[in-house]
Amino acid sequence: MQPLTATLSAAAALKGRILDWIFQWRGPERGTIVLVQRRVFILPTRQGLLFGGVILLMLLGSVNYDLSLGFILSFLLGASGIQSMLHTFRNLANLRISAGRVTPVFAGETAEFHIRIANAARMPRYSVAVTRDRDTADYVDVPADGEAVATVPVPALRRGWLRPGRITLFTFFPVGLFRAWSYADLDMHCLVYPAPVNPGLPLPRLQAGDGKGGAQGLGQDEFAGLRPYRPGDSPRHVAWKAVARNDLLMTKQFAGRVAAELWLSWDQLPPELDSERRLEHLARWVLDADAEGLAYGLRLPGSVIPIDSGAAHRAECLRALALHETAADRP
Amino acid sequence: MSSQLNAVAEQINGIILGKAHQIRLAIACLLARGHLLIEDVPGVGKTTLAHAIATSLGLRFQRIQFTSDLLPADILGISVYNRDTGGFEFHPGPVFTNVVLADEVNRATPRAQSALLEAMEENQVTIEGETRQLPVPFFVIATQNPSYQIGTFPLPESQLDRFLMRIELGYPDAEAERALLNGDNRRDMLQRLQPRLDAGGLAALQLEVQQVHASAALLDYLQALVNTTRRSPAFAHGLSPRASLALLQGARAWAYMDDRRHVLPEDIQAVLPAVVAHRLSPASETAGTSGTALATQLLEEVAIP
Amino acid sequence: MKRLPTALNSHPLVSREIHWLTAAFLFAAAPHLLRMPLWISGLVAGIAAMRLLQLRLRFALPRKWLLALVAVAAAGGILLQYRTLFGRDAGVSMLVIMLALKLLETHTRRDGMLLGFLGCFLLVTNFLHSQTIPTALYMLICAWFLLATLIGLQYTGTWPGWRHQIQRAGVLMVQAVPLMAVLFLLFPRVQGPLWGLPQDAYAGLTGLSDNMSPGSLNNLILSYDVAFRAEFKDGRTPEAKDLYWRGPVLWDYDGRTWTAPRLTQSTEDLPAGGDLEYTVTLEPHNKRWLFALEFPGQKPPRAIATRDMQLLSFTPVRSRLRYEMTSAIGAAYGADDDRMVLARSLRLPADSNPRAAAFAAELRNRHREDRDLVSAVLTLFRNENFVYTLTPPLLGQHPVDEFLFDTRRGFCEHYASAFTVLMRAAGIPARVVTGYQGGEVNPVGGYILVRQADAHAWVEVWLENAGWVRVDPTAAVSPARVERGIASALPRSDPLPMFVRGDFAMLQRMRLTWDSITYSWNQWVLGYNPERQRRFLSHLGFSEAGWQTLSVVLVVFAGMAVLIGAGLALRDLRGVRRDPAKLAYDRFCRKLSRRGVPRGAAEGPRVFASRAARQRPDLAAAINDITTLYVGLRYAGDSGTAEALQQLERRIRAFKP
What we know:
The complex is a heterotrimer of chains A (about 325), B (about 300) and C (about 650). With about 325 residues, chain A is α+β, with helices and mostly antiparallel strands. Chain A has two domains: about 30-190, no CATH class; about 205-320, no CATH class. Chain A is about 30% helix and about 30% strand. In chain A, β10 (about 165-170) and β11 (about 180-185) form a beta hairpin. Chain C has three domains: about 10-160; about 210-505, C8orf32 fold (Roll); about 580-655, no CATH class.
């Protein structure tokens, strides 16, 4: 049993090595990948072989019936087929592939990697497909001296950085008799946040400040400004003078010593939860707190994000959760 | 640079020491008919700069200190019942002037902010259903504290987009600071400032800036820059068409101040950080990078076609 | 952006693609549809219309079993119509119907491509019927259309329009021409057929037959088809009266019909002194005769010569045949023919044409000499009231009698037949020779064009010491027929194919030009057979080369053709045409870069100029001048651009860091 397994794995390794050599797979590449001509491979499709068969049949008929024009037509169509190989090849050659934008997702969602395909040639490229899973592909047309963006969806299973891995670019254009393809392994990453638990635990109640923190936050001492009224605001804080002027409910905000601060903390969670689960609960809390427009801070073992609010803050907190104790294979 | 603009710049340089580039940007921003946002910690001379610009250009000037209880009417004006005439009488707010200095704009509530922003966008204000034109020219020079200061309402991205430029003054270098310490009181110096231009002269200059030629090759470069922000993974979102226009206008003004009647890539590069830094934010991959750093990275990344 | 399955085969076709497929199919099938029985054409057109209507109205298409039923019924109908399923016409009908039915179940890209491929095959079948230039052009357009249709199946984004599709296909085909030419010339040719041909393969070929009865030549003479063309070496075209193209020699007479003997003795002994050299390009006529001027001095390859001076190919002529020939005009032969031969050429059926026999006996009494007797009959034809016409009255049981003594209106076959009967009855060996007489000199192409309308029959008599001598009784009646062609010999009221008369000079001219083109077409395109390929190869210096050499030659030339195609295709990968000022400036930057002052990609021209000038103060002036010129051209939109550009290029050429 053991030797067989060893042989098999050796064979698999050898096959991998051969494929690496043929297709020049060399791991992720930074920056722009140019599909130079030796990186583009081409083989006939099943339809291409069928077409060849039909041409052969036409030739046989022409020989049998001594049809000179039959020869010419067969050769013309056959030669057009061969010429279409060059056209398929050139539809892919010299494209410049680079990483496009990537939006962070939550685990369990699908990350969409945008692949930029630039064409410096004076002819447009039609039906250039980008695929990763070999089941579905994104077909784009790249205008002459222009650029197109294709999307590669990758299911995000775990939190942390997600890489699309090696993607395949291919095209059948113009006749579909040949398939030209090329590989690109772009150095791109998508941040995957932990999947928020649904439904989660209720947000921890605002805690009374311990007076030692010194951090500034929303308090009750000093008038700091007005914000639109949200249900639940204390009627004491409604700026009635402003209402009289504007017909708009405004809530007064006060700065000063923090009377209550919302800390989303690792340690507040039930101890029976494992660390991944905790991160998921924290993600939920971050989303909930953000949705309520609260200012909040995040405490993780080894890192603290001070109290703040807004989209950037939310992103920072989620990022901390996503990358908590992961091997930082990404700057 | 035309002699008048030269004189303006000289005069301001005499007050704000060691910030010639920022002053030039500020003048370019006004020449391009754009509003200016000055962002920095308190005390580096934001207000002084705004004041100096307004005075040197010979424009009417009003200062509004933005606070959390500032109301739109405090900016725009209010109609008061006049017993004698038996009707309402409009008392124009401080916004009815040439240059509005909106000091610490992020201290006011979004409602107050948006009142000003409508005025910036439309060059008119609507009060109690009545639309009133603002004087020409009309500029807003806003100052704001960095957003991490507490008790602030940071301007949302859509409103930041309305400022043609954002400049940061930064601390003066040692030499400039020494000169500052040795020199007169700034407030007194502001009082002594002489107008070097007037509203009519400024309008003429602005018209000339409009005529500065931008060739197809230059627009190619500009579009390459903008498209990169829209497609590159480094940016959370791309620049808006408004930003493209702002970039072109800023570059035109910059070229004009360099006494040229055509725009060069260098002009775009000179104004780009000021024009786009406040409109860019980093994507998750480049989290923590400032808008200014992103703008610099953009300039390095995009080749001039 | 469009997310689709990786394999597009099962991708559904859109209306536009089905419209194209239907139209391409109808175009390719159109020549067949015009030839086919009405019910087949109607069926096919109906199916196509149904498919197009379905796209609009979206009703359910017939199920598979129903289609199968229709296919079986159609096969039955074809069997009834043609009595076979495998003949040429039956097979093509079947193919067309099947393709039409396939149209009804073409839903995916895979189906569409298959239909396109089969459409290509359908194109070739058209050549079974016609290989003329118009057909070739039509099929070329059809192939173009089909290719464009196939290309149309491949768009996944926005459709760039039919122009783009057509243009793509055209470019593809034009770029394929070098390879096509190499394959056509060098691909090893095998003489067909590889397998049995259907019986009706050569139906409809016209030409002389091995028998002649009154009226049998008439149909031929009404045909405008080309029999053959002959090109004389050095332009030595013989006179019209010598243009007797010898064909079947008819010996046997049953009182009505003349027939050629089944078996003939071959001979190697052809007349000497054949100094008239020419080349004959014979249209296929599905018989073995090869035509030559009297009398052939040599035999073509793969043919025999018979003792009665016929040239017979080993196999029926089923494709256009080209052969070199020499002739000795007016040569004598057969003076030593033996008694057996002569006896056969005296045989007459008993109790037929009694009046003619009586008349011959009477002539024999008057003229002892054979030559006198021949002259006497010719004089009779010339002086009596004989009329040369294409529309003679019908003849009864004794056709020669009735013709000679009652109707006296006839055509060459009547005269030849009557004359031979008289001779035989008078004891002079005689036989009927059929063939063509005359032909039209085409001054455009420099050759003689012989049509079926030039078919003719004349007589040979055997005279002591002279051998076989040609006698043309028609010439006695109508000398014009022999000297100026059939059109001038016939009364105007007689029907003749349009154009044969040549009344309109311009039309005549156009017709001759067109025929000359057709002649070259036949020579160089249709006539390119294994034999010609051998000769072409020997021109290239590969005579007697083995197949290995020939394969290498083919591969080398095909490789070159593919390289040409690759060069044409990959040319479009070049970048967009840049501003010449920018190109010049790039050259300038490369020069500086080689001297250690490279420009950053994002470095503006003025910034770079000042940096370069700092690094190379010796060049500062030149660098600044060039930069000023460049900036002016590229960014300031300087007027007088052409001049400024020239100056910039000059300065950069002169710039030697």
